[in-house]
Amino acid sequence: MAKTLYEKLFDAHVVHEENGTALIYIDRHLVHEVTSPQAFEGLKLANRKLWRAASILAVPDHNVPTTDRSAGVAGISDPISRLQVQTLDENCATYGVTEFKMNDARQGIVHVIGPEQGATLPGMTVVCGDSHTSTHGAFGALAHGIGTSEVEHVMATQCLVQKRSKTLQVLVEGELGLGVTAKDVALAIIGKIGTAGGNGFAIEFAGSAIRGLSMEGRMTLCNMAIEAGARAGMIAVDEITIDYVKGRPFSPKAELWSAAVAYWRTLHSDPDAKFDTIVSLNAADIQPQVTWGTSPEMVVGIDGRVPSLDMAKNEVQRADWERAYAYMGLEANTAINAINIDKVFIGSCTNSRIEDLRAAAAVAKGKHIAPNIKLALVVPGSGLVKAQAESEGLDKIFIAAGFEWREPGCSMCLAMNADRLEAGERCASTSNRNFEGRQGQGGRTHLVSPQMAAAAALAGHFVDVRTFN
Amino acid sequence: MQAFKQINGLVAPLDRANVDTDAIIPKQFLKSIKRAGFGPNAFDEWRYLDHGEPGMDNSKRKINPDFVLNQPRYQGASVLLTRENFGCGSSREHAPWALEDYGFKVVIAPSYADIFYNNCFKNGMLPIILSPSIVDTLFTQVDASAGYQLDVNLETQTVTTPGGEVYAFEVDAFRKHCLMNGLDDIGLTMQQQDKIKLFEQKHQLAQPWLFN
Ligand code: SF4
Question: What is the ipTM for the molecules in this complex?
Answer without folding.
Answer: 0.94
